[in-house]
Amino acid sequence: MMYSKILVALDRSSQGRKVFELACELAQVLKAELKLLHVLSPEASENPSSFAPYTLSYDPELFAEFQQEWENFKKECLNLLEVWTKEAQEKGIKAEFAQRYGNPGSVICQQAQEWGAELIVMGRRGHSTLGEIFLGSVSSYVIHRCHCAVHLVQS
Q: Which residues make beta-bridge pairs with 8?
C-alpha cells in the first residue's frame, strides 16, 4: 500500500527526533506529505504541570509562576514543530504542523481522521504488558482505536 499522508506524533524527547527522522525517510521514499503533531497533555511527563505543587490554587504567586512555565513550554514545543517542519520542507517534503491540547491517544486518532492520514508514525516507550495495563499506553490506545495503519518506533 502506498501512503500519501503521514501523521507524525511527536514529543520533545530524543525518541521524538528518531520518530521525526524515520517519518521524513518514509515521506521521501513514498512521496508523501507529513503533518507533525504535538499534544499538550496534563499527564505528559514533559509537561510543567506534572511538576506543579499541589498548593497552586492557594498561592497566587506560585500559580502565576506555573502559568508562565506553561506558556514557555507551549512556545518551546511550537518552536520545535516549526523547526522540524522547515527541516522536512528543506528535504523536499510537503509538511505542516499542529499543536493540540488533550488526551494524547484520542487527539492523535482524531487528528488522523480529520486530516485523512493513511499512516501514523509515533514512538513507543516500551512499557511491559503489565505496565501498559496499569499505566496505559498512548501507542496501544492509537493502535486499537485509529482508522489507519500505525508504525511504532521503539525507544
A: 36, 121
Instruction: State what percent of residues in the chain have pLDDT above 70.
Output: 82
In sequence order, what DSSP letters do the residues of 48-75 get, joined into one string?
A: GGGG--TTTTT-HHHHHHHHHHHHHHHH
Which cell is 95 given? 509538511
Read off the C-alpha cell for 42.
496534563
pLDDT at 21 over 90: yes
Q: Are 67 and 49 in contact (CB under 8 A)?
A: no
pLDDT digits (tens, 9 = 90+) for 89-134: 999 999 999 999 999 999 999 999 999 999 999 998 765 555 444 4
The single residue listed with the C-alpha cell 501523521 is 7
Cell of 150: 500505525
Cβ pair 108, 120 in contact under 8 A: yes
Give the containing element (helix H, strand E) for 25. helix 14-30
Cα of first residue to Cα of last residue in the chain, in angstroms, is 26
In order of their start, the domains of the chain are 5-46+82-154 (3.40.50.620)
Can you tell me the distance from the alpha carbon of 57 to that of 102, in angstroms, rounded to the nearest whole number? 21
